[in-house]
From TrEMBL:
It holds the Pfam family Aminotran_3. One of its GO terms (molecular function) is pyridoxal phosphate binding. It comes from Chengkuizengella marina. This is Diaminobutyrate--2-oxoglutarate transaminase. It is an enzyme of class 2 (transferase). Pathway: Amine and polyamine biosynthesis; ectoine biosynthesis; L-ectoine from L-aspartate 4-semialdehyde: step 1/3. SUPFAM superfamilies: PLP-dependent transferases. Its EC number is 2.6.1.76. The gene is ectB. Keywords: Aminotransferase, Pyridoxal phosphate, Transferase. The keyword Zinc does not apply. GO terms for biological process: ectoine biosynthetic process. The lineage of its organism: Bacteria, Bacillati, Bacillota, Bacilli, Bacillales. PANTHER family: DIAMINOBUTYRATE--2-OXOGLUTARATE AMINOTRANSFERASE, DIAMINOBUTYRATE--2-OXOGLUTARATE TRANSAMINASE. InterPro entries: Aminotrans_3, Aminotrans_3_PPA_site, Dat, Ectoine_EctB, PyrdxlP-dep_Trfase, PyrdxlP-dep_Trfase_major, PyrdxlP-dep_Trfase_small. Belongs to the class-III pyridoxal-phosphate-dependent aminotransferase family.
Amino acid sequence: MNIFEKIESNVRSYCRNYPVVFDKAKGEILYAKTGESYIDFLAGAGALNYGHNHDYMKGKMIDYITSDKIMHGLDLYTSAKEDFISAFHEKILSPRQLNYKIQFSGPTGANAVEAALKLARKFKKRTGIFALMGSFHGMTLGSLSISSNKSNRAGAGLDLDGVTFIPFNHGPFGNMDTIKYMEYILNDTHSGIEKPAAMIIETVQAEGGVNVADIEWLRKLRKLCDEHDILLICDDIQVGCLRTGSFFSFERADIIPDIVVLSKSISGYGLPMSLVLIRPELDIWKPGEHNGTFRGNQLAFIAAKAALEIIEEEKLEEEVKRKEYFIKQFLEREIKPIDSSIDIRGIGMIWGIDLSGLKNNNITSGVIKDCFEHGLIIESAGRNDHVIKILPPLTIGIENLNEGCNILKQSLLKAIKNANETSNTSFSTNII
């Protein structure tokens, strides 16, 4: 038994799939203490869009540390925060004509979600929230209440109420007009459901199985929220910061949410940081009404500003489109033909291989294990973990992207073959 198993809580999870001690990382490669290298298709669950230890960001942070600058600042005015706010407004908000105030909440995405929910309820003076089936927004009680996974919700130890879950426009309800369904709920005097303060969405449900919202559906949803005086909150924690091809995932639908939450890759380097973007008229907070000791992570401000510069200097938007094409072509030509029941879906550089349609569909854990044994770190998502999620750093080189995809293909072929052989053996035994 190692020190982790002996001392660390049972709550640990990722390490169970990748049972080595990691020591170093660079770009898209992780290195174990024993020297083995692994291509990273996990990217810190979306927190490392620019890879591990990017030289430019690292240099900026080293310069800052060696200058004895402020490291912990609560919400004091600091030069690091000033520079980040200026850069974010100049490079991200202003070119998109987005008029948002920036709130620095606690350092996690879940805390940003909590702040968004609190503000929506405070502003609208209504308590209900609409959320989507298949959603994941965090593990604190408020964020967990709007997350639909039953196993996650069970960890709360109490009832999570105040939320109405709406079918997403994908998956088992793909043919259902969910906009019309919400119209019915809101207009029917006997629906038993009160008008909510807000509706929170992920335009791409990452943990839900890489479910990509239809553009027209997003536009209709924006219109519905406007017509019924409901705030629209977009959770861009995992799929923001260029993951879908544009900085914000909602840009492709040409809509503007009332509130946007960002975390994970907003800091650029994997440091804790989160933002809540708020339409100015919604900013009715009283001073200190939502605060947090670590809402002023100065080093994260430095890295976050550097990340915005990297986007421009490395032309990452073009890079994501180029790699999106590569991944899509590989999945359609190399993975989809393996079995016609395999469903491929994704956008930008987040893709899912849905194996739920296979006759023997309980193979994702075997695929992930085999991938790891052959030098690839990748995870599963979705209902019953039937979706293999591809989430490499945006900066990954094409050679390693290709190698990682091929490792995945071979592991998938092996798992399906083994599952079929096991099934045939069982069938033969039953006949005898």
